Amino acid sequence: MPEAPLIDTFGRLHDNLRISVTDRCNIRCFYCMPESGVKFTDRHEILTFEEMERFARVAVSLGVSKIRVTGGEPLVRKDLAVLIGKLARIEGVKDIALTTNGVLLAEQAQDLYDAGLRRLNVHLDTLDAARFQQITRRDEHHRVMAGIDKALELGFGPIKINAVAVKNLVEPDIVPLARYGRERGVEIRYIEFMPLDAQGLWDKGKVLLADTMLEMLAAEIGPLEAVPDPDPRAPALEYRFLDGIGKIGFIASVSRPFCLNCNRIRLTSDGQLRYCLFAVEETDVKGLLRGGAGDDEIRRTIRTTIQKKWLGHEINTAQFVAPPRPMYAIGG
Ligand code: SAM
Ligand code: SF4
């Protein structure tokens, strides 16, 4: 008998799994990681590709059909294309995507393409190499730009650019990024700065809001109109320029949370299952995977975790508690 789909107590269907493959990274974005002294998870505590594949197969048997691989920086994990190939071959997976900072993309793009990957989100906040270094504390801007060029050349698509929107910092980048995207046929997704940084720097006053960016873009480039998303559960609010050239999107987690449509579960690189980016509790899956549990037991654990899912994060309330792990350790 086919398994019942993963529906939580608020009626939300879960078909989207994000797998973090590492908590390591080759740059140090200030809104995610500390500058130095990061304590990474011991390698033995990180799930193997086989364990990730097994978990993904079980999740797919419960109706998951979309998988995104993320991190930390997923391309620092050796032979990532092998995992992509394993996941892409699971029957029932309709969509596989990767989120990367792009530093190692140029050198790995061909292998990733050959493994079946097409959808890419590349993280790039600025076209300005000096500001890139200020944000990431590393001089790798040229490699990210080369990575995007290589991905375009190989025919990846859709390619989206993730740009984190921090107030009093990236205002000069909003319009140039949109122009860059319009010229290359890539969508820029502006992501409101979220309270997931390792150093507790976030406060609401540091968030560059979607509405402010929309005004800047309309004033400098031209009028935009909202695009109804064919997938009503997609987190981004999308707009297109009325001149017909290009689209942009906003992940407005702070000003317009999309929790009511959330369809995601997350597996951390150390094998913890999370029902929300902001969850303060996790379910240990690694213990099951390494302790000889059968698929039915893992299925039950996934269902139980989803049943605990809350209605939404409460970033905008006094009760909000930031999760104990920062973005790089959860998997963004
Ligand atoms: N290293 C890859 C990267 O940077 O794309 C994948 C992991 S990273 C944690 C995933 C995404 O999280 C990034 O693309 C970045 O846009 C976003 N991100 C990281 N810290 C954030 C924060 N504090 N607020 C909003 N978005 C954040
Ligand atoms: Fe690394 Fe991505 Fe975090 Fe930046 S956002 S420090 S690239 S994991």
Strand order of the largest sheet: 7-8-9-6-5-4-3-2-1-10-11-12
Can you tell me the CATH topology?
A: TIM Barrel
Structural class: alpha/beta
Bound molecules: S-adenosylmethionine, iron/sulfur cluster
If you average the pLDDT, what whole number results?
Answer: 93
- Unreliable parts: none
Order of helices and strands: EHEHEHEHHEHEHEEEEEEHHH
Largest sheet: 12 strands, mixed
Helix content range: 25-40%
Number of strands: 12
Large-scale geometry:
globular
Instruction: Quote the distance from N terminus to C terminus.
Output: 34 Å
How many domains make up the 3D coordinates?
1
The total of helices stands at: 10
CATH superfamily: Aldolase class I
Characteristic terms for this protein:
binds S-adenosylmethionine; binds iron/sulfur cluster; TIM Barrel; 332 residues; alpha/beta
Question: How does this structure look, described?
Answer:
- It is a single chain.
- This protein has 332 residues and is an alpha/beta fold.
- The chain has a single domain (16-330), classed as TIM Barrel.
- 30% of the residues lie in helices and 17% in strands.
- It is built from ten helices and twelve strands.
- The protein has helices at 49-61, 80-88, 105-114, 129-136, 141-154, 171-184, 210-220, 286-290, 295-307, 327-330, and strands at 16-20, 66-70, 95-100, 119-123, 159-165, 187-192, 224-227, 237-241, 247-251, 264-267, 272-274, 283-284.
- It has a twelve-stranded mixed β-sheet with strand order 7-8-9-6-5-4-3-2-1-10-11-12.
- α1 packs across α9.
- The protein is globular and about 55 Å long.
- Bound molecules: S-adenosylmethionine and iron/sulfur cluster.
